[in-house]
């Protein structure tokens, strides 16, 4: 095991920033009151929650009353899709989404299909882009919801959300976007995007795990998500995770303030990494759109090797990344995203996602490019399909 440790998996999760942790700490022990209590200790917690709500709303250009805190981005996706489906079932039971959504969306849609809803899964092009024209053609009189992610978690492709939103708005169809990978890394204005619902998760932008939020535009017809209390204006029962919510608020505030500087650095590192890998290693393809992609996202497919083996050998060198192959999750099938953009199984299995963060440096890229080419060559030499 290498003494040097380089973290290239920021799309999976990010470390909690010191300023975020400092903001959270008092609410674990000193300001521990239940926000629903009317005495001073409870009011202090309530005030902290509402201040965080205002921060989230400010970044998204929403009204604070349109922000609802959840336990995760996955919960926010579930609430948005199931909540709209159940509340609008009398109008119709048709939902539109894409073939490359996160499983929080896809599995929720699969579940609704078992309850009698019909779901259209739109294809994407070779870069992972959804066509707005395909969305428009798929809308029917009984369509109640379109759910298209802002940016893909695997290949980083950024979707034409505002254009899709204009179409859904003109057709009087609700529009949800899973923006879990995008919030904190892109400027997102819910009014400019024409979205009715938007999901986010704190741990993707240097906040704590176990807390997310759902933007629900005023007037959106949606059911209550959990029952048992009057929290979140009677929409989501459960005693609020005050430290987590405070951390989310602080993290999104910092991400918004530092976005321009951070993105400039990330794009420089990202493009350097892409160029060097494509130049120095043969039989490699970049997955996702070359320009319309998240600032820190890089996804490659290497022919003649397995992504899982590549990950393990990089880990031995102290480099943390992830694979487009789902082998590590116990499945023999490659990524649904990579198959959707047209990769054959054998190439999709040889994929590597490297997602950069604010802590990464040029020296990290130097180290990666020192160890990656020989690892790829060694693994290929073990393949009966590789002819050097």
Query: How do the SSEs run, as a string of H and E?
Result: EHHHEHEHEHEHEHEEHHEEHEHHEH
Distance between the termini: 29 Å
Based on CA inertia axes, which overall geometry fits?
Answer: globular
* Percentage of β-strand residues: 5-15%
- Low-confidence sequence ranges: none
Q: Biggest sheet, strands in spatial order?
A: 2-8-7-6-5-3-4
* Tally of separate helices: 14
Mean pLDDT across all amino acids: 95
* Major sheet size, sense and barrel closure: 7 strands, mixed
Rg value:
22 Å
> What structural class do helix, strand and pairing data support?
alpha/beta
Number of strands: 12
Helical amount among residues, as a percent range? 40-55%
What does this structure look like?
Helix 10 packs across helix 14 (362-381). With 388 residues, this protein is α/β, with parallel strands linked by helices. Helix 7 (161-170) links the parallel strand 5 and strand 6 (174-178). It has helices at residues 18-24, 26-29, 40-60, 73-87, 103-114, 132-138, 161-170, 190-193, 231-234, 242-280, 307-316, 336-340, 345-348, 362-381, and strands at residues 6-7, 67-70, 94-98, 118-122, 143-147, 174-178, 197-201, 212-216, 284-286, 297-302, 319-320, 351-355. Helix content is 42%, strand content 13%. The strands form three sheets. It has a seven-stranded mixed sheet with strand order 2-8-7-6-5-3-4, with helices on both faces. Strands 9-10-12 form a three-stranded antiparallel sheet. It is built from 14 helices and twelve strands.
């Amino acid at each position: 095991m290498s003494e040097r440790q380089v973290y290239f998996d920021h799309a999976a999760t990010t470390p909690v920033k010191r300023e975020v942790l400092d903001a959270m700490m008092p609410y674990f022990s000193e300001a521990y009151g239940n926000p629903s209590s009317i005495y001073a200790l409870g009011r202090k917690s309530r005030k902290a929650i509402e201040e965080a709500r205002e921060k989230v709303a400010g970044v998204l250009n929403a009204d604070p009353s349109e922000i609802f805190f959840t336990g995760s981005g996955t919960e926010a996706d579930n609430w948005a899709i199931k909540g709209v489906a159940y509340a609008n079932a009398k109008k119709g039971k048709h939902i539109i989404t894409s073939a490359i959504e996160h499983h929080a969306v896809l599995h929720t849609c699969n579940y609704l299909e078992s309850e009698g809803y019909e779901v259209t899964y739109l294809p994407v092009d070779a870069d992972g882009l959804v066509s707005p024209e395909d969305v428009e053609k798929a809308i029917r009189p009984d369509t109640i919801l379109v759910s298209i992610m802002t940016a893909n978690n695997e290949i980083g492709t950024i979707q034409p959300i505002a254009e899709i939103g204009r179409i859904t708005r003109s057709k009087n169809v609700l529009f949800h976007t899973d923006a879990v990978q995008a919030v904190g890394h892109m400027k997102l204005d819910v009014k400019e995007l024409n979205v009715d619902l938007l999901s986010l998760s704190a741990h993707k932008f240097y906040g704590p795990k176990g807390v997310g939020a759902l933007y629900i535009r005023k007037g959106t017809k949606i059911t209550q998500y959990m029952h048992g209390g009057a929290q979140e204006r009677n929409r989501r029962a459960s005693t609020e995770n005050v430290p987590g919510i405070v951390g989310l608020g602080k993290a999104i505030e910092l991400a918004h303030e530092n976005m321009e500087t951070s993105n400039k650095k990330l794009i420089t590192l990202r493009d350097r990494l892409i160029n060097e890998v494509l130049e120095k290693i043969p039989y490699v393809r970049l997955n996702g759109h070359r320009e319309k992609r998240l600032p820190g996202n890089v996804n490659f497919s290497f022919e003649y090797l397995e992504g899982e083996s590549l990950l393990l050998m990089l880990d031995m060198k102290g480099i943390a990344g992830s694979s487009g192959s789902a082998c590590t999750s116990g499945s023999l099938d490659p990524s649904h995203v990579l198959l959707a953009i047209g990769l054959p199984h054998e190439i999709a299995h040889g994929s590597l996602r490297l997602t950069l963060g604010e802590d990464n440096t040029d020296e990290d890229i130097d180290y990666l490019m020192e160890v990656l080419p020989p690892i790829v060559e060694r693994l290929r030499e073990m393949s009966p399909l590789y002819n050097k």
